[in-house]
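User: I'm writing a tutorial on reading structure tokens. Could you give me a worked example: one chain, its sequence, then its tokens, then a sentence or two explaining what the tokens reveal?
Assistant: Sure. Here is the example chain.
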Amino acid sequence: MGQNAEYSPYSRFGFGLVGSLQTPVHAGMGGMESMLYSSFQFNPNNPASASALGQTTFQGSAVTTQLQMSQGDDATATARFGSSGPLGLAIKKQGGKNTLILGVSPFSSSGFAISRSTDMDNIGNVQERYDGHGGLSKAHIGWARTIKGRGYVQAGLSDSVLIQTNTLHLGIQTQYLFGAVSRTSVLDILDPTFLDHRSVIDMRHRSISADLGVIYNHLLFAQYNEDQSFEKSASMRFGGRFTPQTGLYSDISQVDETTQNLGGINIPLDTALFVAASNVQGKMPASWNAGLGIIFDHANGRHFGAGIEYSETLWDQVESDFDAALRPLGLTWMRSKIFRFGAEWTLGNAERRHPTWGKANYRVGLSIAQQPYAVESTQLESRSLSAGFSLPLVGSRSLSRLHFGMELGERYTAAGGLNENYARIHIGFSLMPFFKNNWLRERLYD
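And here are its predicted structure tokens:
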């Protein structure tokens, strides 16, 4: 139940809502995975981003969400809840080329509580209740490496300087997907002369796959003065991530039983159906993304970067491999498509600005997505606006930071029906060693 990150009726299908949480930095940029990496937080979905870190980094976050649901003009409901976000550790020597990645991240969440009351002829009042909880997480361990290229650029009118002109970040990680999802359906007839019915489906899933990531940064131009001091530069960045299709192994059990409500407690009377299956085999889909960005830097510390990204997850190609419990009535798995735009900037001239806010990194983003399934033949869609910032922990005398992200979005189907509006706030941290206590650093003693 600790994996619940959403309380949405849409999470009652299959695995629940897939890929709903990001780190605060990347959530503030629309969830970008392959483009705007930073030196102080890495994206657990793209292992190549870890090689851009300045040194060993430990990161974590928490998320709080307010969800407002509406159906028609009169039916509304509001839910507020919180959960943990991605947790990770990247071990890297300062200035080194290799990075070891360890972490655990949420993959999906299922949490809902739906009820309906109707009056039926000759039976009386009938209550239906649908409840669910659980979700899937992924643990990952990986390796990232940086490959740097150098070249000469002109400095002033008659000199040149040797600088870094190209950087290639490569990453690979093994991810272990695991977790459990439970769904309960209850039919409760208030007239005690009628028996009631309860159905419980429990599923435990596991899968092992790999993520391959790459980010390439190409210097477009760099300007230096006669003193060989940096003035400004511009770079083009390309990135992508690929996860191949892999096997899914599930333990699934279903119990349908006749019950009777005595004193508010549903007492089982008879089992109508019991099915238990171990190691049910299926497939997890292949997925990929690719992005393009441009970055500008200035000698006074001013920085600006913007990028676009497109992602696909091929759920439609593995639907036929799913057990029937993963394809509830009315559900069709479909290809998920996501378009993201993000931008980040730092103001520069930090010594002339506020000692904290003047050094902060700011970001905005946009996400438009088609979710991986259709409800009654209409694909679920979502869109969100996001923003955030990172504050340096000046007093720590390290590169540690606090991160904040916010998302405003909605989920809906083109056919109408249930519409959801959500506001999500991410609060996180990235901790780096104090400069006198850098890890993996050789020391000289006299």
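What the tokens reveal: Helices lie at 24-27. The CA atoms of residues 2 and 83 lie 7 Å apart.
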